[in-house]
Amino acid sequence: MRTKQQLLTSPRRKRRGFSVAELVLVVFIMGVLSAVGLVSMNLKPTEAEAAARTFAGDVCQAESEAIARPDLGCVIKLDTAGKRYWLARPATPDTPITNVVTNKPFLVSFGSGAAGRLTDVTFGSISLGGDSVVQFDGLGSPDQTADATVEFTAGGETYYVRVAATSGVVTVTRGTVMTVGQSQSLGGAESN
Q: Residue 133 in contact with residue 83, Cβ under 8 Å?
């Protein structure tokens, strides 16, 4: 009969680990699952989101232009049929101002120029007080009596840009437009 010591050190009683084949199989399965997970996640913003955020930034630029040049003011005008908008002076709302960065007209056309990759973007509903213009005064306040809202759609997604009538604060909202006092969970994710 063997002693306890002999049983523990016996060649038949080896500690068994994982074989190389088993480890390779597990790593392979983890790699496949990771690849499937990454493909299913949309890591880049949608066209609708990119268009809405671009527009929101340009609204802020229009406010800044109006503050910098209170004697001239600034408007942002939409051409929904042409899928474009531009910054202009109130006296000449159909003539884009010069973009100080590019030294070209401050005109954004979805599907061309800097917004060239945004080919599927369309304007949805627009609420700008009955016209297609938001004008900012020398304090950066919009000329709207109610919040101005512009809807962007592409690829089955919708984003809204809202310009608060009282403060000029710009927000981007995914999904349904949020009204004052509405629950966050009803309106989707909101960010500034």
A: no
CATH number of domain containing 159: 3.55.40.10
Q: Which residues pair with 87 in a beta bridge?
A: 76
* Mean pLDDT per 10-residue section of the chain, whose length is 192 residues: 60 68 81 70 71 93 92 92 93 92 91 77 89 90 91 90 91 69 38 46
pTM: 0.69
Q: Does residue 184 lie within any of the structural domains?
A: yes
Q: Among candidates 94, 98, 104, 105, which has minimal Cα distance to 65? A: 98
Within a 10 A sphere around the Cβ of 62, how many other Cβ atoms? 29
Dist. CA 127–CA 146, nearest whole Å: 9
